[in-house]
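Hello,

Following up on my earlier ticket. Below are the two sequence lines again, exactly as submitted.
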Amino acid sequence: MAAVSGTAAVGGERLCGSDIPTNPPLLRRILTKFIANEVRKVGVERVVVGLSGGVDSAVSAMLAAEALGAANVLAVKMPYRTSSQESLQHADLVVARSGINSMQVEITPQIDAYFQRFPDADALRRGNKMARERMTILYDQSARWKGLVLGTSNKTELLLGYGTLYGDMASALNPLGDLYKTQVWALAEEVGVPGEVVHKQPSADLWVGQTDEAEMGFGYREVDRLLYLFVDQRYSRQELHAAGFAPSFVLRVVDMVRNSQFKRRLPVIAKVSNRTIDRDFRYARDWGR
Amino acid sequence: MPTAQFTLAVAQINPRLGDLEANLTLYAERTREARRLGADLVIFPELSLTGYFLKDMVSTVALRLDSAEVRQLAALSAKGGLVAGLVEETSDYRFYNSAVYFEDGEIVHVHRKAYLPTYGLFDEGRYLGRGDRIRCFDSRFGRCAMLICEDLWHPSTAYIAALDGALTVLCPSASPLRGITDQAEQDNNARYWELINSMYAQTFALFVVYANRVGFEDGVGFWGGSEIVEPAGARVCKGRYYEEDLIVGEVNLKSARRQRVISPLLRDENLDLTINELMRIRGRVDSTASGPAVVAPPVQSRLAPKPTRKA
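Thanks for your patience. The regenerated structure is below:
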């Protein structure tokens, strides 16, 4: 783990229920029910999922295979020319283990064609563009395959805003959005994700050698514990300090959560009528289903 | 004379959100199946005729008790009791989260949910009117009370039901799964419910019939696990977690008698003491506030009055 020293909560004040619970068999049962139920009520039987070679998409895909049957899951591998070979191999391991369908769509031509016009674009712009290209491919394949796009974003990255809006954050349904990375790891073992995929350094693979933890500057396990206490257990900042988290770490993470709130909401709509979408026009998404 | 022994079924269904027609069909199918299995009384979950997260659909799925749809439900009770969970529309156009008890083709009792959860993921108080009474009623199956889901999280409701003579508490519920604990086979909300169902059954020496739904609405799952708990706290039968089910169990009201002989807590209940103390507490409570009044200490500012500053 590339954890930054001095931020880990060791020896601080601990209240009851301060550890993130993991109950992989129960999560597996609930999430397969969720996928089967939410997919079928729309009148389809299938899902399509972008398979990166990482643990999150592997868990989503394997849960879907269990919920709907492997034949009803299409995994799409969408490498760019700099994507790691290991990622592709890991994606293939997941396909082989689960028996799901797979296809590969290289995104290099469309990415390079675009950035030829903007050669100065930095790595972040390029990474976000790639994430959005992959999204458009998934939604196109979704229409061809007649399946819903299955999300793979976990609660840690959703809270930190460590994802691309309308890119990897886009999906029709997401079984992992309420699970911290720590919980995804535990679930991965439960559903049989190959060990190589579970135990490697998490990476968005946006550029060569990137790892999430080096880029963010802290480890998933420690930030998960902080987020769990802050979000789920509603600890105040003072209580987080007392629990052993360095004030600078708390401040940074709380800022990341607040500053990325826009990514977790629909675009802001200017209210002019008496009944505005989502403000006073309120219906469940499963309206009539 | 009410029957002391009867067969009770809970239909643990997954209704379609906002689709009355589909859910009426589901009610008819499950009731038929339950009757075939010998059920005298069939209980459906809270709002299971309409779905739970109705939001702005409340007024479009609401039913008047004299509507054709409610007559259809009444017809399902021609051969025994039936409890339905629906949105009730009154003649002055109010909407309630109601449980309706039918017997022999007639409405015998309606309970309007008195405690509407409006916190966390719940928004009932925004869309529905609040019921203002808890009354037992006599049925072919003895004296019953209906309490809907959150009602039972307020101990006063079960207490009132017990003192009003209930031998059976029927609790239609739409309880969402939430909270995970290491190694439990069900979520935390399910575990808490099981605790209170058993606790109320034993504390008041009566049957608790808990009817929960399953399925997902916008990602929120309902955990099922319906159960019939007898007066000594043991389960007569139990529904599966997270999956549709139809549970059928025998209820013998003499178990309540045996439990009340062993442990005559209800006989010893001192109603005057309770009422007197509640009146005393109510007298202390500011009628405009929802919590106990706090006597504010006199204001003693240590700060000197701030000089007014001119911009």
